[in-house]
Amino acid sequence: MKGQALAIALVISSGIATFVMSISTLDSLRYTQAAYYNNYRFAEVFISLKRAPESLKGSVAAIPGVQRVATRVKAAVTIDIDKFPDPVTGLLISIPDKGEPLLNGLYLREGRLVESGRDNEVLVNDAFARVHGLSPGDKLHVTVNGKRKALTIVGIALTPEYIYQIQPGSMLPDFERYGILWMGRTPFGAAYDMEGAFNDLALTLAPGAEIKDVIDALDTIMRPYGGLGAYGRKDQVSNRYLSEEFRMLGKMATIFPVIFLGVSAFLLNVFVSRLISTQREVIAVLKAFGYSNLAIGLHYLKLVLLIVLLGTVGGVLAGIRLGQGLSRMYMDFYRFPFIEYVLSPYVVGAAVIVSAAAAVGGTILALRRAALLPPAEAMRPEPPVSYRETIIERLGLKGFFSQPGRMIIRHIERRPLKSLLTITGIAFSCAIMMAGTFFGDAVDYMIDVQFGLSQREDISLTFIEPTSGKAVHELQSLRGVDYVEAYRSVPVRLRYRHHEYRTAIEGVEPDGDLQRLLDTSLKPIELPPAGIVMTDYLGKILGAGPGDILTVEVLEGSRPTLQVPVAALVSQYIGVSAYMQLSALNRLMREGSAISGLYLATDSRYKNDIYESIKKMPRVAGTIARKDAIKNFYVTMGKQILVFAFYMSIFAATIAFGVVYNSARIALSERSRELASLRVLGFTRGEISFILLGELALLTLVAIPLGFVIGRILCAYMINSLQTDLFRIPLVLDAGTYALAATVVLVSACISALIVRRKLDNLDLVAVLKIKE
Amino acid sequence: MSTRETTTREDQNSKVFEARGITKVYEMGEVQVQALRGVDLDLYSGELVVLLGASGSGKSTLLNILGGLDTATSGHVTYHGKDLTEATERELTSYRRSHIGFVFQFYNLIPSLTARENVSVVTEIAAEPMRPEEALAIVGLGDRVNHFPAQLSGGEQQRVAIARAIAKNPAVLLCDEPTGALDSATGLLVLNALERVNRELGTTTVVITHNAVIADMADRVIHLSDGLITEITSNQDKKTPSQLQW
Ligand SMILES: Nc1ncnc2c1ncn2[C@@H]1O[C@H](COP(=O)(O)OP(=O)(O)OP(=O)(O)O)[C@@H](O)[C@H]1O
Ligand SMILES: [Mg+2]
After folding, report:
1. Range of the domain at B159
2. CA distance A675 to A688
3. B105 CA to middle of ligand 1, Å?
């Protein structure tokens, strides 16, 4: 009985631990994020523009609802780092010549801010500095606006504005090839021809201000200055990805604890029912002595609550440990300057209440039965259990079973509900295991499809501004470049009815080989000559489908607003893009053969030569090497997935063990007499083990396929709730996932079977037979 | 008193059990309980022996040692010359499986199996069994083969237990208070079944009872007291169960 109670407490612990771990981690992250945003004055509205005089700042500050305004200069730059041949690009942001930025402050990890009067000082962001081993005093070369400048690093910094650092045009973070740099406003303005002017503005809102009004007013003011459309935090890339991640974490925080607590409620029910039926006589005697129904009910309730208490305390302690570890992992991942681990009392309170409720809910009926059992009836043994031939046997398969086989199936059939619950419990552990481990395969598949079939370029590069199509020939002629495809990317705001979404329309070559759009069966589709093709995810966001006319608000150049029909939807796992034929987009924009960048298929032997040549091209703002981007993604993603899968495997094994062990112990206590009789008749230990464990083996074997089905549903549910702008993981479960889940279940079933087997081997035959049934 | 005189005239070749100096000590923490204090006993092929003695005198302990359910603390028991006290757990299991039939006060049937199937449990693993129906017919239950234990009376259940014990044609049938839980009329049916098995199949049968009347149907009666055999008597004219005076 001690073993059983412990096994149940363990399952409760797992549930509570996942609950406390996820919720407290989430709370900590949210709290940290808020504190970080607040302490470092993260802005609330952002806009980029072409160029505006500094004097315009006053009119922005005068917009009702605006609190503080900061103007900045930002520029895409290329960075040269000694001994790193790959092209590295970055974003250079201006900071005041002296002192802290008014908005979007910097947390200095090392070094200092820039000093006025020095024109060669720069700060670099922490992640970038770390992968390249940069520290204050090191030098790097930055090419701004075609001018190469030698700069000295004076500080390593973090900012709430770029917690997630994703290079424009890329879909995955790459700390090695993309950096954020800060430079004093005056030297930066001089180098970038931005003296007395700005091209980026951020502001905060006064309490109660309506963000939409401010954005509209700001757009109106900035239109003549080439404003690219103002947006709030909701659309700010870093913040958006962070919110999505937190949302995913929140989902995890509910799904798994619910399953664990459900299973433990079931286990407690079985345990208490069994306990009460074996203790009928004790109950009767107590009642005969005058104990009240309530006292008896409370006695068992106390036992249940003791188990719950044990499980909850263990779970909360484990959850805190795991939560602290996980928070620290996230702090590292997001490069928060600090993490405040918060464990709000409500989390612990909720853990206690939820688990106690699950336990009491699971056992209330059994407790009631114990309390209401009339003493006289309780003295009598339970009525003999009646068995009958099972359906399988009546179907004519009778001859198929030996007597032990019959004992197994009749026993299962006599308690169909209990057998079903056991199967369900085991199936859930199998499902949890799958849900915990399938990410790896699904992400592999996603990457394979996206970068193997759809985005097949080796290198993509972007120009500082739209360029004539002649650049194609220039690159085509480089040694090692096999093939070049041009693309045009236009930032837009798409509207359909009351929905809108900021993205870019990618103009690509219609029968291109490097950029292909895929239909649901992964076959490349041909781009229609006119109209927009967009990802089905974007279609869902806008509520638009083929044939619907979208309002396209172009966010660059003369910023026309156009009506364009949706030609088709395609499925894409990564990003939220809209596509058009390059020539159609050019026509729409009333421009010649303008392109924004190029996709290259290259011979990897000439990689470094090509990089060298690209670095010398002044108009190239950014370069993305596909394979490196993927590798980077794996490194960051892989670690998280592994940690998660590891936790889940442990929890799934706990459940499988808890369920199987409990069933086995109960079966043992119910059937020890029968099994002892068989031993007396000359059955060997192995033969009686077969009868007891055969039943469990059968239930486990039935549970595994059911677990596969539940697991698939659970994975589908998770994937569905984990859809983000960043990526949508496809439901791909490969054989390895199934095999691993089945193995974990089987191994934990075998371990509990071995424990029970040892008990069976020590069965005291004589003692069992002495007692009246 | 010299009790062994009465048995030496039996044919040595048909000796089934030979027990010498069996003791059994139960260790219960600090306390030691001496259940058997040196029992010498021979049992012969085909005889029906009744074990009599006060509660706690060691009858069940002795029977369990003979049947290979338990092992003696010291002394030796041989079955057809093979030493049971030296046997491993595995050997004892196979010994019970092939040679011994047990009947207990509480019938210990498998509730999930019918009468026939309860018997089949044994015949499926025996070397030369009779058919389950045949065994049930011997105990007079030929018409109840498809009933589950819950559908049978106590006496009927006990007879199924006997059928199960004899179905493998065991050399020895060991019964521990087989009528203990039954009224006299029902008990009689059970005794009839035992007597018939002993007579028709020649199975060596040992019956433990508290009912001295039953001793009248035995070939020999062994009296146990406080872990020792105090007396062995032979019945010159043994009675059939129906002639017993209840
Ligand atoms: N498992 C055990 N542990 C400790 N003592 C035991 C055990 N089994 C039997 N005894 C003791 O051994 C002695 C003999 O027991 P046994 O069961 O052989 O008696 P019995 O003659 O069969 O009695 P009854 O007629 O009441 O069944 C008793 O004193 C009993 O208390
Ligand atoms: Mg006894």
Report:
1. 3-238
2. 6
3. 15
